[in-house]
Design goal:
single chain, 126 residues, mainly alpha, 2 domains, 5 helices, binds zinc ion
Length: 126
């Protein structure tokens, strides 16, 4: 009984030697299975991993399901899309801060030379 994977332990069933969930949901990390079970359901996770066209990618698929489930638990509305959107916002913020610093430096340089600062240019590309 102690050799059961986290999924079989959670579902209170015997863990067969060919358990599809066992390699990806070890008993040492029960939270990993709890997250995917909460979002997708154990049978759906097993079915997705079983029906994967490229079985050698099951580990990546299981990790993706875990990450998506974790994101969905933290943000029920947006899930992973919320994280991606935040990354784009951060990228745009960094870009804008760099443009602002460059413009301030140009203005300071122009002021030190006694010249008028150039008209602000709007860069259309992000
Ligand atoms: Zn199992």
């Amino acid at each position: 009984m102690s050799g059961r994977c986290a999924a079989c332990k959670y579902l209170r069933r015997r863990c067969p030697s060919d358990c599809i969930l066992s390699p990806y949901f070890p008993s040492s990390d029960p939270q990993r299975f709890t997250s995917v079970n909460r979002i997708y359901g154990a049978s759906n996770v097993a079915k997705m991993l079983q029906e994967l066209i490229m079985p050698h990618l099951r580990a990546e698929a299981a990790e993706t399901l875990r990450y998506e489930a974790q994101c969905r638990i933290q943000d029920l509305i947006y899930g992973c899309i919320g994280v991606i959107s935040q990354l784009y916002i951060n990228k745009y913020k960094i870009y804008t801060e760099c443009r602002l610093a460059k413009t301030r430096a140009e203005i300071a340089l122009m002021n030190s030379d006694g010249q008028e600062p150039p008209q602000a240019q709007v860069d259309q590309q992000i």
